[in-house]
NADH-quinone oxidoreductase
Amino acid sequence: MTSEFVLEAINREFPESVLSVSEPYGMLTLEIKKEDIKKVIHHLKDSSLQINFLTDITGIHYPQNKEKELGVIYHLHNMMTNFRIRLKAFSKRENAQFDSVTDLYAGANWMERETFDFFGIEFKGHPDMRRILNVEDMDYHPMLKEYALEDGTRTDKDDKMFGR
């Protein structure tokens, strides 16, 4: 199975859903419309493409891009042909909700909870959307790029020691 074959199959079934295509490091990577991401994943799993293993779900935060500030990234794998694909979908921060894929892949349960826990992205239809790794009363999502990486007031470090 080749990237071209899979891309053609997706474009044939969902001609308006693919927003961009790239192939970094040889992995087909598609940006899909937010409202179509679950339909595309369902098609990849249940069609003859048999991309039937969900490797990972994670979030991403681009604070400088208000139209596509939060995103969800899905890594899928066909174990028979060793074909991998990466799907991305983006949303504004105010409406950071995506359809849950727990009904397609049982393993998505904890992956979606982790993405919610660290990025604040909610998954509609998830059976148990609550924090999984951080404490329940935590009032922020630690992977959002909202805080400075270093304390600018520190005087006990010398940047020359770190190659800067």
